[in-house]
């Protein structure tokens, strides 16, 4: 008896040592930046309410909003993202179910013939000769083993391993929703960017067509002057080369329009159809200037920041679960039903059985694998923290860049308009002077080329203003209602 108690004592002591070896303190990795976030983006005390940002707050063009709305219903990438959310939701339900016992209906039938010189053979032979049993209790050979009833299995979550697995799955589910919002924001930004690019190309096409007519007129004039001996073949060829170059730009721009329209069709999930747009980019109202003191708290509403934060939370839960794997686990396996060796006796009240098996296991020789997995989870958590910090920092810089971009491109646009106006006047003056012989043909060609370039740049600058607005929408977290 003393030896048996000593063995039990040593077993318990070994179990406690195993538990103690796994009980290292763990401090969750907090989602924080290396430095405190600035209160505002540019020091202003103005604020813009932090929160969900409907695209309609940024984009006023009804045709653009219609394109975005169509894409959110039909874009294949967005539909795939919805399925990933459903997958993550199912994973949450699966991990939640691990906390509950599993109960299964069990019907089992077996048959065994025992030999004369086996434990069952000798025991059953002796039992069948006993005067204490009746005919129903005599054991046949072969012997059937029949069971009908319920069996359950339940891992008691003593250390929170299963709970943390569920928490990790829940965090990843929420991260998948943030990923969906991120994709929504990116899709909205891509459509708006392509839309404004299309408007720009329409303006460029109009500018090119107008300049082609001007250059055709100039070519006709120089040809007439050549016939009158006031111009040379060199001048004719120079004007012809300039016209051919501009006509080449026309075809190039037409191709870009086709590709941009098809890009919008791809994003909106359609094969064909007209892309409705307002072709008067230069007359579109400039984007409203946001209050420059947009609080940096809005960065935390960015879907990529939220996603990084939730992924960090999931890894924290993974670390806790990996840590709990060092501790002993308790599994309970109850059962109840009917068990007999004869079919006629199976549902006899005397065949009713029940039982409970408690199983305690603790890792011993496989602790090296558990330590490696735990260390891997810790490293993943630290990497997720660095990713979170990078995402926040990147978001802050994007907001600053695009706030300043809208401001500086607007000033650039004002100056370019003055330049275009001056160059148009220069073309008119050059033509008049050429006709009276006070300017040469190269001055006319240069003036025409400069105004064409400036008008194309003017369209692109206004496009850049709207693109900065689109990028600011992305940088502040985006959204759609």
UniProtKB/TrEMBL annotation:
Principal place of residence: membrane
Keyword Signal: no
An example Gene Ontology molecular-function term: efflux transmembrane transporter activity
PROSITE patterns reported in the protein's UniProt record: PROKAR_LIPOPROTEIN
Residues forming coiled coils: none
GO CC annotations on file: plasma membrane
Membrane-related topology note: Lipid-anchor
Pfam families: OEP
Keywords, alphabetical: Lipoprotein, Membrane, Palmitate, Transmembrane, Transmembrane beta strand
Keyword Transmembrane attached: yes
Protein location: Cell membrane
Family statement: Belongs to the outer membrane factor (OMF) (TC 1.B.17) family.
Designated name of the protein: Efflux transporter outer membrane subunit
């Amino acid at each position: 008896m003393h030896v048996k108690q000593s063995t039990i004592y040593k077993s318990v002591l070994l179990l406690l040592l195993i538990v103690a070896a796994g009980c290292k303190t763990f401090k969750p990795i907090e989602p924080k930046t290396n430095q405190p976030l600035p209160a505002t983006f540019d020091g202003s005390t103005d604020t813009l309410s932090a929160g969900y940002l409907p695209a309609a707050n940024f984009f006023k063009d009804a045709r653009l909003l219609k394109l975005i709305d169509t894409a959110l219903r039909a874009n294949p990438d967005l539909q795939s993202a919805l399925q990933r959310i459903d997958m993550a939701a199912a994973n949450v339900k699966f991990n939640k179910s691990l906390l509950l016992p599993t109960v299964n209906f069990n019907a089992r039938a077996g048959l065994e013939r025992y030999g004369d010189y086996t434990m069952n053979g000798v025991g059953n032979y002796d039992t069948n000769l006993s005067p204490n049993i009746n005919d129903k209790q005599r054991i046949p050979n072969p012997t059937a083993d029949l069971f009908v009833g319920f069996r359950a299995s339940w891992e008691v979550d003593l250390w929170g391993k299963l709970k943390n697995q569920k928490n990790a799955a829940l965090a990843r589910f929420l991260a998948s929703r943030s990923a969906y919002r991120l994709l929504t924001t990116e899709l909205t930004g891509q459509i708006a960017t392509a839309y404004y690019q299309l408007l720009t190309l329409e303006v460029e096409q109009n500018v090119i067509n107008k300049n082609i007519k001007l250059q055709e007129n100039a070519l006709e004039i120089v040809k007439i002057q050549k016939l009158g001996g006031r111009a040379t073949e060199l001048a004719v060829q120079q004007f012809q080369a300039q016209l051919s170059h501009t006509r080449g730009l026309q075809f190039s721009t037409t191709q870009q329009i086709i590709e941009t329209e098809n890009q919008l069709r791809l994003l909106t999930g359609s094969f064909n159809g007209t892309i409705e747009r307002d072709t008067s980019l230069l007359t579109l109202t400039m984007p409203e200037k946001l209050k420059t003191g947009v609080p940096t708290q809005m960065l935390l509403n960015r879907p990529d920041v939220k996603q990084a934060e939730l992924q960090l939370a999931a890894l924290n839960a993974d670390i806790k679960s990996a840590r709990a794997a060092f501790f002993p686990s308790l599994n309970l396996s109850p059962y109840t039903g009917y068990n007999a060796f004869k079919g006629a006796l199976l549902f006899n009240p005397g065949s009713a059985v029940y039982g409970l098996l408690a199983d305690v296991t603790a890792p011993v020789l496989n602790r090296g694998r558990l330590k490696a997995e735990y260390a891997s989870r810790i490293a993943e958590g630290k990497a997720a923290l660095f990713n979170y910090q990078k995402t926040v920092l990147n978001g802050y810089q994007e907001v600053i860049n695009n706030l300043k971009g809208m401001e500086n491109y607007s000033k650039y646009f004002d100056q370019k308009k003055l330049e275009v106006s001056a160059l148009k006047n220069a073309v008119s003056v050059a033509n008049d002077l050429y006709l009276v012989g006070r300017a040469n043909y190269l001055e006319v060609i240069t003036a025409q080329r400069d105004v064409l370039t400036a008008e194309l740049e003017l369209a692109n600058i206004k496009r850049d203003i709207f693109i900065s607005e689109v990028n600011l929408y992305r940088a502040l977290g985006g959204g759609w209602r």
